Amino acid sequence: MKVILCFRALEVSGQYPGSNVLPCGRKGHDLNLLLGKIKEECFLDRYVEKIPVASEDLEYLKSDELEQFVSTLSSFGQSARYYFLEVVVGREPETANPEAVWKQLETSIALGRPDLIRLIEQGDRTGKVGQVVRPVIVGKLERWARALSRLFTIGQIGDEAKRYVGYIGGFLRLRDEQFGQTQYDPCGRGL
């Protein structure tokens, strides 16, 4: 998201912003703040009105569904990643246990599915709930990545951004029915 904002700044002003200009929040990883700036600065009326998928992308980026997910990731990036270090050194952690927060996120997904609720009530010894919930989470990440990736090609973040499409091309080509189904190389060597 910081890269997107840099390309947009280059398009608007002719230069990349200084590190002190990027909206990163108090601890540097405020994903909600970054996403808010992207929605404000990159999803311009002429883009959203002319390109139907841009409107869909913006609607998803504004959704409560994504906001809860981004907030959880943002919290982890800002401070929850230090939770266990704080516990080990005997300090009171500043945040909730990240495992518990993640479980709440997974539970909120499962609660929307009566079949999964039944499995949870029965004890789910097979791990079926996790097998269903994990692809949903991956699908949310993929849809978020696709919405942001489209800015590189059909969005208004500038010609320089188009030179880097190779890095995000896999997300551009994802179709809705592929969300949560794609197998990724665990070493990050592409899709």
Net shape: globular
Major β-sheet profile: none
Quaternary structure type: single chain
Low-confidence stretches at least 5 residues in length (pLDDT < 50)?
none
Number of strands: 0
What structural class is derived from the secondary structure elements?
Answer: mainly alpha
The number of domains is 1
Portion in strands = under 5%
What is the N-to-C succession of helices and strands?
A: HHHHHHHHHHH
Average pLDDT score: 87
Helix percent band: 55-70%
Number of helical regions: 11
Radius of gyration, in angstroms, nearest whole number = 19 Å
End-to-end gap: 20 Å
Structure in words:
With 191 residues, the protein is mostly helical. It has one domain. 62% of the residues lie in helices and 0% in strands. Helix 4 crosses helix 9, helix 5 runs antiparallel to helix 7 and helix 9 crosses helix 11. The longest helix is centred in the C-terminal third of the chain and has 26 residues. 18% of the residues are buried. The mean pLDDT is 87.
In short:
By secondary structure, the chain is mainly α. It has helices at about 1-15, 30-40, 45-50, 50-60, 65-80, 85-90, 100-110, 115-120, 130-155, 160, 165-170. The model has no long low-confidence stretch (mean pLDDT about 85).
